Amino acid sequence: MKKIAFSLLLAMSLTYNYAQNTLNGTITDSESALPLEQVTIYFPQLEKGAISDAEGNYRINNLPLGTYKLVVSYIGYQTYSRSITILSGANSLRIDLSPSAIEMEEVIVSTPFHKLQRENVVKVAHETVANLKARGAVTLAQGITNIPGVETVSTGLGIGKPVIRGLSFNRVLVYTQGIRLENQQFGDEHGLGISDAGIESVEVIKGPASLLYGSDALGGVLYLNPEKFAIPKTNSGDINLNYFSNTEGLNANAGFKASSERFKFLLRGSVASHVDYNTGEDVRVTNSRFREYDIKAGVGYQAATFKTELRYNYNRSDLGIPEELGEQTKSRSPGLPNQEIDNHILSSKTSIFFERSSLDATLGYTFNDRREFEEEEGTEEAALDMDLKTFSYNVQYRLPEWRNLETIFGVQGMHQRNENFGEEILIPDAITNDIGFLGTSHLHFKNNSDLQLGIRYDHRAINGEASGLPSEEDFIPELDRNFNSFNAAIGYKMGLSKNLVGRLNLATGFRAPNLAELTSNGVHEGTNRFEIGDPDLGNEQNVQVDLALEYSSEHLELSVNGFHNTVSDFIFIEPNGEFVGEDAVFLYRQQDARLYGGEVGLHLHPHPLDWLHVESSFAMVIGELDDDSSLPLIPANSITNTVRVEFNKTNTWLLNSYAFVSLQSVFDQERVSSFETFTDGYNLLDVGLGGNLLLFDQEVSLRLTANNLLDKTYIAHLSRLKTDGIPNIGRNISLGLSILL
Question: What average pLDDT score do residues 120-140 get?
Fold first, then answer.
């Protein structure tokens, strides 16, 4: 306790000593030399910034001494990125921005050095939630499928799990508020448990990220960035309303945030309600209805050399579990079977900035309460009642930069407890302890190339209690297993020419088997099968090679990204031909596997028609076991072509506007596992338009989107309702209204 008190006193004294360090200057157009208003100036590592005024002037107070990356962004201009050394007292910097039709670049938060995409060695997909909503996404799980290489395993509309390049569930790690989201992700019959309200953007690392995040990041990471606090000495609020015709869905959220020079807070609440969705045949899928309630809050304190923030998120989801095309109703209350899921996410992030180095500590606590009610008369108790409590920590020390070499050392881990309170036991009461040590470096060369490498060691211990009696059919014995793994990553980015960049990455990853794979011994009601686990399963270990070529000019962007992923001891489930009652017996097994494929992207905005954007993306993945049989739940190949127009500052009342037409073509999926069937391809046409208006000095945003405009009847290969012949959602017209207060 004395050491903690001394550290806080030291941080406060440093804050006082360096409180007068400032950065000010003017932002201008490089061609006209005119000042630019409403430009964002931001230090990603410090999470501190400002906005330029009508004369182009800006000022950022209370900065620590040292060298930090500064990012300046404005619509219609090339994003400015440069390392700035803050000296004692007043610092000045004039910035000239160059006009560009290329869209603004964002800082990538999911990688350790917080660089722009063009500066990163690892290619990371980035998309704002606003853009996903403009595409008509009903839920966050549905929205991420607009990112090439990302799909979702769905159960109707309200339940979805992310799939990255063919890998899903415990092979994909989800991060929110800077901490790992733990919510029994081994199961495919419940969703993410987080609302898109209060989420600013989504980042996707496609490939093993065990170096950065440990076990369960073998296939990739879905990183959700929460909305930022307000710029110092500002406040803002907004109200957002959405209507979805297909489900008669209503979605509303409102938020307010304010910041002084040092203190800041934000608050956002949301509610969503949907009836059963309609297929393309105008038939409602019984009990696909769902409701969601979500609250997000945050407080923070920021001074020169010390900043801390505390965030909390509560999410309640009431989910119907669809099984048939039965009773046609517009009830909003889920019938039986259904789930009630409560998620509590509490996180704190603290940073101390020394003169040339920094220390970051992120702590998290998540509580997931999952209850499932089945079709049994005379009972109101949940058949399945599981509580999952997880405490996680992540402490990283950034060394002083030396000759363009940045280095980070860190320790990460978690303590997790699973408890059962219902009659059904999917997995036993258990405790999982993780700890990992990592080191990673980024070296920038003068020839516009970068090298990044790192190494990590992880240890996981799982202790499970016995469940039932040895004489019973569903007995689960006591479990005591330990798993260890070393992993490494190396990547190189090279400027092959003025406009051509190449990235080559080699990374290893691992995943310890989850409790379901180790201990299952009974009927899994959500899948209607009798699952038998194997307590002797070992680590999955993979090696992925990723090669990307990217061409970028003022009016053309082209990217080709290929990968080959070899997974040793891949864990999969397959039937053994036996039955327990009416349920087929499925066993967990291990065999080497391989996945390969990639994505191709094209973005054309021809001169002088800078308002016109022609976009095309193609994604494919093939997954095979060592015996040449196909892996299950591999997405079908798809291509998406979009024509989009955008206009900025059309007149005094129409600030900006857009419209788009998009055609997604999904190919036949004939590469299926032994217990899957072929899936026919399909084409989906989407259209949309929207813009920002200034009405009575109040900014209002409107959008109108029609998804599956032609009301196509189709079944996605990754739909869990496919085995029952239940189609996906038909035509859905959504209307959105946002009012900026």
Answer: 90
314 CB-near residues (< 8 Å, 6+ apart): 293, 294, 295, 342, 343, 344, 345
* Contact (CB, 8 A) for 642 and 659: no
Q: What digits encode the pLDDT tens for the residues 589-598?
A: 999 999 999 9
Pairing of strands 583-604, 529-532: parallel
Rounded Cα distance, 305 and 49, in Å: 15
Instruction: Band the pLDDT of 424: cuts 50, 70, 90.
Output: confident
pLDDT given for residue 16 in this prediction: 44
**How many residues are present in the chain?**
741
From CA 661, how far away is CA 643, in angstroms rounded? 5
383 pLDDT more than 80: yes
- 3-state SS assignment for residue 706: strand
H-assigned helices in 380-538: 515-519
Tokens found for residue 691: 């813009």
**Residue 343's closest CA among 386, 288, 380, 300?**
386
pLDDT of residue 13: 47
DSSP E strand boundaries for 199-305: 199-206, 220-226, 234-244, 249-259, 263-274, 290-302
Separation between Cα atoms, residue 163 and residue 623, nearest integer Å: 13
- Whether cis (ω within 30° of 0) applies to the bond prior to 470 is no
Q: φ and ψ at 171, to 5 degrees?
A: -95, -5
535's CB contacts (< 8 A; 6+ apart) are: 477, 479, 481, 518, 519
CATH class of 124-740: mainly beta
Give CA–CA dist 91/67, Å, rounded: 12
CATH placement of domain 2-100: 2.60.40.1120
DSSP 8-state secondary structure symbol assigned to residue 118: G
> What's the Cα-to-Cα distance from 225 to each of 101, 175, 260, 315, rounded to whole Å?
26, 8, 22, 17
CB under 8 Å to 657, separation ≥6 — which residues?
646, 647, 650, 689, 690, 691, 692
Query: Which residue in the block uniquely carries the two structure tokens 């400002």?
Result: 50
Strand pairing of 57-60 and 90-92?
A: unpaired
Distance CA 695, CA 323 (A): 47
- Give the residue range(s) of CATH 2.40.170.20 domains in the chain: 124-740
pLDDT recorded at residue 735: 96
In whole angstroms, what is the distance from residue 330 CA to residue 289 CA? 9
What does the alpha-carbon distance between residue 263 and residue 258 come to, in Å, rounded to a whole number?
Answer: 9
Residue intervals of the chain classified under CATH 2.60.40.1120 are 2-100
Return d(Cα 253, Cα 536) in angstroms, integer. 47
To which residue do tokens 């859905």 refer?
Answer: 732
Pairing type for strands 48-51 and 57-60 reads unpaired
